[in-house]
Amino acid sequence: MSGYTSFKTGGMAKALITPDSLGELKDVLTGLSAKNSPYMVMGNGTNILVTDSGYPGAIVKIGKAFSGIEINGDEIIAGAGALLSSVASFAADAGLAGLEFCSGIPGSIGGAVYMNAGAYGGEMKDVVKRADIISKDGKREYTLDASEMKFAYRSSVLSNTGDIVTSVTLKLRKGDPFLIKEEVRRLTALRNEKQPVNLPSAGSFFKRPPGHFAGKLIEDAGLKGLSCGGAAVSELHAGFIINKGNATASDIIDLMHLIRHTVYDRFGIELLPEVKIIGDY
Predict the structure, then answer these.
(1) From the candidates 167, 204, 208, 234, which is the catalytic residue?
(2) Cα(73)–Cα(206) distance, integer angstroms
(3) Which end of the chain is more exposed for a tag (fewer CB within 10 A), N or C?
(4) Which residue among 123, 154, 167, 208 is the active-site one?
């Protein structure tokens, strides 16, 4: 799975399935569920880490077949496999404001809605109007309005049900394309200055504890630059664990444990991973 995740490391999955249509996705989910076969669904792989021992089931990847983007007035309808950056660029070109915050987030729309991704003061809950969803067993297709999504910090109702977004309707607002693109450029420059965008990572590794920032706690604990094997706490942003080039998943997990224990010992605050770890560890 190192070739399919932004950490660029991790073990094997038993199978990788990339459906070419909604019908194929439904058939795959129905078939796997009927056989009680272990499986998980992924998007662009920017928020997961597969352990070195691998995953003993199938990975169902929502990819290019679900990457369409359409515009309807001040709304954008995007397939779950569309990259956030692509949707944000599409919106900017169309003079639609509201997605500037996510222009540099490397994930897909489906994954972003699933976990209510956010950055620079914006979250997906601010722009989602409704989501088309398929149940994890492939037997039911349905739509949820934003009010039914139960968006919270890095979670949604889907975090509990495990159901899968297939497309999203985003409600944006008319704006000046030049000003929108200027804001995208500003946030992109800020991200490039403050974050290790040129090294493999999964973005912010830990959730933000109430009243605190994970990166600040890690830095104040003296852990900036700390390494475990090929994994390290970023010197640019202590909230990022990076792969220096030869990290194993175990290196990253060991470093995660060290960070969590140190921060808890120093400040009595428990850091919870935002990154989803797949497999036994």
Answers:
(1) 204
(2) 37
(3) C
(4) 154
